[in-house]
Amino acid sequence: MSDANPDDHPVVLFDGVCNLCNGFVQFILPRDTNGRFRFASLQSDVGQELLAEHGLPTDELESVVLIEGDDCYTKSDAVIRIAELLGGVYALLGPFRVLPRRLRNWAYDFVAARRYRWFGKKDQCVMPPSDVSVGERFLE
After folding, report:
1. Of 73 and 95, more confident
2. 69 conformational bin, left if phi > 0, alpha if psi -120 to 50, beta if neither
3. Which of 17, 18, 52, 105 is 20 to 30 A removed from 114 (C-alpha atoms)?
């Protein structure tokens, strides 16, 4: 694992200016009671480094990405894996993995292509909530 994530926690990369994507991070934070996940925006230096390290394009910001050790998940696979790691009722998304990836990602791409229009966009990446320290949960 890179120096960007020295403690080897699963890292969620997200579009830092997208309201929907930020909402997804805000959804994960209180449900990740063990503090397992780390976060970085796709636009950040850390995000760009992790994308490149895992052979993903650094100029496409259309997907949430989960990096878990040497494994890398994008789009619907990332959402399902995050839900599985959250556990509890969220793990019930796991069986959706049996649906064809093409179908799952079509639905994902449909929303992703419209996310700014439907949910809005920030002028810059948002800061984490005040009760979450940068450097501990949000990679710099």
Report:
1. 73
2. left
3. 52
pLDDT-derived band at 124, boundaries 50, 70, 90: low
31 to each of 25, 27, 49, how far by Cα in Å?
10, 7, 27
Residue 5 near residue 67 (C-beta atoms within 8 A): yes
DSSP-assigned beta bridge partners for residue 121: 18
Q: How far is CA 133 from CA 85, 111, 129, in A?
A: 21, 30, 8
* pTM above threshold 0.90: no
Query: 83: part of which helix (H) or strand (E)?
Result: helix 75-86
15, containing H or E segment: none
Can you give the pLDDT at residue 1?
44
Average pLDDT value for residue range 43-61: 88
Q: Are strands 65-68 and 71-74 parallel, antiparallel or unpaired?
A: antiparallel
| For residue 60, pLDDT beyond 80 | no
